[in-house]
Amino acid sequence: MDPETQSQIETTVIEILKNADMEEMTEFKVRSAAAEKLGLDLSTTEYKRFVRRVVESFLLAKKEKEEANEAQGEEGEEEEEEDTKRDGGKEYDDDGDLIICRLSNKRRVTIQDFRGKTLVSIREFYEKDGKQMPSAKGISLTAEQWTAFSKSVPAIEEAIKKLESRLN
Q1: Are 122 and 138 in contact (CB under 8 A)?
Q2: Is the confidence at residue 162, as pLDDT, over 60?
């Protein structure tokens, strides 16, 4: 799927989600509405995965924003508009996986759908025929595993500080 098509689908799906009753909306309904709006058949596996990632990303961003608003109080409309613009700037790889960050030239963190499960993948990549391909070197964590790991990050950071202070 070319980047222009990805961008059009992502923009359309986000627009549909912003205007939707989230109690009634399903992924299928979003995909059907986007297909009708764009005049594309989005029923293939590649498109289904991509739409799922956009929906999940939207819902995750919405949840994080709600949690931040609860913690800090209501924020102004200007900041909400800026957050929406940032959502449109997400980067996806050739497989439609959301690239969260690039740790180095050959390592990155992605969110991917594998056999119906959302995975956080921290992986090394190599180049083949001009494309970045995932190598066997890395780890993929389920959402539950990621939650357990992320809760341990403060302890990991503290251990790193202690080790570094011993070395200095």
Answers
A1: yes
A2: yes
